[in-house]
Amino acid sequence: MQLVLEKRAERSRTVALISPLIAIGLTIVTMTILFAVMGKNPILALYVYFIAPLADGYSLQEIAVKATPLVMIAIGLSLCYLANAWNIGAEGQFLMGAVAGSWIAVKTQGTEAGHWVLPAMLLLGAIAGALYALIPAICKVRFGASEILTSLMLVYVADLLLDYLVRGPWRDPQGFNFPTTAEFDPVATVPTLIEGGRLHLGSILALIVVAAGAVLLGRTIKGFEIRVVGAAPRAARFGGFNANQLILLTFAISGALSGLAGIIEVAGPVGHLQPGISPGYGFTAIIVAFLGRLNPVGILIAGLFLALTFIGGEQAQIAMKIPLDVTKVFQGVLLFYVLACDSLILYRFRIIFSAPQVARGTH
Amino acid sequence: MRDTTSAGQHTSATPLLQTVALTKRYGTFLANDKIDLDIWPRQIHALLGENGAGKSTLVKTIYGLVQPSEGELRWEGRNMVLSGPSQARARGIGMVFQHFSLFDNLTVAENVALGLDGKESFKEISARLERVSHSYGLPLDPKREVWQLSVGERQRIEIVRALMQDPKFLILDEPTAVLTPQEADQLFVVLERLKSEGRAILYISHKLEEVKKLCDTATILRNGKKVATCNPKAETAASLARMMVGTEIKEVKPATTRQITVPRLAIIDLNLEPDDPHGVHLKGISLELRGGEILGIAGVAGNGQDELFAALSGERLAKDPGTVVIEGIAAGHLSISRRRKLGAAFVPEERLGHGTAPRMRLSENALLTGHVAGNMVLHGFVNTAATLNAVDRTTETFDVRKAKRDPEAASLSGGNLQKFIVGREILRNPAVLVVNQPTWGVDAGAAAVIRQALLDLAAGGAAVLVTSQDIDELIEISDRIAVMFHGRLSEPLPTAEASREKLGLLMGGSSLEATEQAHAAGT
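Above: the input entities. Below: the C-alpha cells describing the complete assembly.
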C-alpha cells in the first residue's frame, strides 16, 4: 500500500473552503494532547477556551473588541501577501499609528479643542502607519532589500520609540512615574456603541474595511493587478502591471490600516498611550490573514476566531491556571496546520493498494 | 493494428528491450495504455506521436524515472524492475533529454563528471571525454564553460555523456528540435555509426521526413495507445501524420487577395544589452513590416528571439524611442499597455505563466491584455460580463475546447490554451501582431487553426511578425523570412527564394553572401 500526493487539474474550491476547518480540527486535537500532558482536564480546558466565552455578553463584546484590530490589520496584510509582498512588520506600523495619533491627543490635552480631534488622530495614525510601512517597501523596490527582514526589524524600532515617549516627554506628570500618558480627553476617545459597554465605533470601521477589501479584490482592476502580480509575476508584467508600484501600494494600504487599528486601540479600549498596548496583534493578524484564506470575509471569521482564543486563554489562565503562553502555542500550531492543509487545495491524497504488478495482456 | 516489420532482419532472437502491456495511470488519466514495444539491437526505432500522446511517459518509464502502474519491462528477455535512472544506466540504457541538464557556469568536463556514476578521477574523465568525443566526430573542448557554447554544442555534451557509459540502448528525445538542418545531418551520421556498432536507438520526434530518412522502424502513439508499428520508409509523411493525428489535417489556405499596404511596424537599428548575463545582446536589428504581410523570423532557439520579443512588446524598454515604431509612432520607450493602445498585440512563447496566469480563470486572463482598451474596465471597476463575453467569442471563433464556460487556464490542453491566447489577441483587431512560436508543442489540428488565423489576420490588413524554430511553418505562412543568429537579424528573403538549405546555413551563422556563393557553387 502506498500513499501518494497527486496534483489536481484545477484547484479545488471545496477544499479551499474546508481546509481552515481541517486545520482548526487538527489544532484542537493537538491541544487536547497538550492539555492532557500538562495534567489539565482537556475537555474542561477546551470548554473554557472555546465555549465559555461565547456564553456571556461581556465576553462576546470583548471578542469583538479584540477582533477589531486583528481584522483591520489582516485585511491590509492579505493585500500584501496576495501581491507577493511580505509585510511582517504590521506590529510596528500599528505602534507608529498609535504614537502619531496620540501626539494630537497629548498636545490638545486639557484645551478646548473641538470634535475635530478624534478624526484628526485617526487620519494621522493611518498616515504614520502608511509612511512607516513604506520604508521597507522603498528599500525593497529601490535596493532589493528583503522586506521580510526590514519590516520585522522596524517593529523593534517602533516599540522602543513608544517606550521612550511614554517614559520621557509624554509621561503623565500625575502618573506616579508609571510609563503612560494621561488619560485622553473625551474628544480624543473613540465612542462606545453600547452605554457602559466595551464595544466601540472601531468595530464598525473594521466591517467597512472588510467590505471595501472585498470590493477592491473582487471587482476592481487594481485588485486584479494585485492578484496577478502575486500569482504570475511574468504574466502580470506582460499584462502591463507594474510590480514595484503594487508593492508600494499594498504596503501603504497595509500600513495605513495597521496604523488606524493602532490609534483606535489606544483611543478606544486602552484610553491612553502606554507600552504593551498590543498583545502581538500585528503578528497574530498574519495568522488571521492566512486562516481567512486571504479573503476579506474569511478574514472576518478568522479574526473573530483568533479573538476567541485570546479571551479563552485569559479565562483559562484565571480558571485553570493554564499559562497565557499556551495561547501563543495554540496560535502557532494553528498557522502551521493552515499552511500544511493548503497543499490539499492543489494536491490530493491517493491510496494505492496494489504494488505495480505484472499484467499480461492479450496481443 | 498493423505490423510490417519482419522479424527476419533481426540478428538476435530476443529483443534487447521489450515493454509488455506497459500501463501508466495518473489518477484516472491513462498516459500509457498497454503498450507493447520491441527494441532490437542495430536498429533506429522511431517513437512518433503528438504532444500528449504518451511518448515522454513511455521513455521515462524505460529510463526508470517513472514507475509503471501495470505491465512489464524486459531487458534481453528477462524481467527488469528499475527503481531509478542509475539502475537503467547500469544496465546500459542511456538517455539524451530534450531539455538539457547542464550547469552554465561549469566546464564541459565538470558537467560530464557530475553525470557519471563511476569512480574515475576527474583527470581520467577529461581524457576519456576527449577521446570519445573525437572518435565520434563530436568535438568538444573539456575546459570551456557551458554558457559559452551554442545549443548544438550543449547537446553534444549530453550525447557524449551518454556515450561515455557505453550504452547498448540510447534514447534521444526530440534531438533535432534545437538544431539547424545541417547540424541535424551531422547528428544523423553519428546515429548511423552508433547503429552500425550494434547499439539500439529509440528516436523520439514529430518531424516525419527525418524519421523516414533515418529510422528502420516506427511506433506510433496516440492518446496513450500504440496505434501501429511500421516501416517508416514504406510510408508517406501524410500516412504517418494520419496515424499520429487520427484524422486528416485541414490544409491551411493562403488568402488569395492579400494586399501589402502601409508600414505598420518598423525596427530601426535596435541595439540592446541583455538583462541577464547569459542573455543575448541584440545588435543592429532593422526591419520594416507592412500591413497585409507576414514576416517570419527563423533561427535556433537562444539566438535573441526572446530578447527581440521583449523589446518589441515593451517588457524591455529601449533607450532610444525611435528604435521601435508602431503605426508610425516612436514606441521604444513606451510601456506594453501604451503599445497595445497603438494597436499592437503580442503572443509570447510561454503559454503558462507568461501569456496567461495559470491559476486564474480564462475571463481573468482575457482581462490581462484586454484591460487597456474596450469596455472591460469602467471607472476602475471590472465589467465581468464583458470579460466573459470575450471568452465566449474566442471559444466560438477559434474552437477552444474546455470542460466548462470559464475554467482556469492551466486546465486547458496546450493546443486549446494556445488557440485561446492567439484568439484573445486577434479579436482585439490588432494592426500589428508579434507572435513567438505560435504552434510550439501544439497538436496538429490546433496548429492548423492558428496558422489559418494568422493568415486571415494579415488578409484583413494587419502586419504579422512570426518567430518560429519550425522552418516548414514559416515557409508555409510567411511572405518573407529573416534569420536570427547571435543577436543579429539577416536581411529578409522572399519565401520563394528561401530554401531550407539557405535558411539552414543562415541559422548556422553564414552570411547571406556566403550562402549565395554556396548555392551557386552547388548548382
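Note for the figure: The longest strand of chain A covers residues 2-7.
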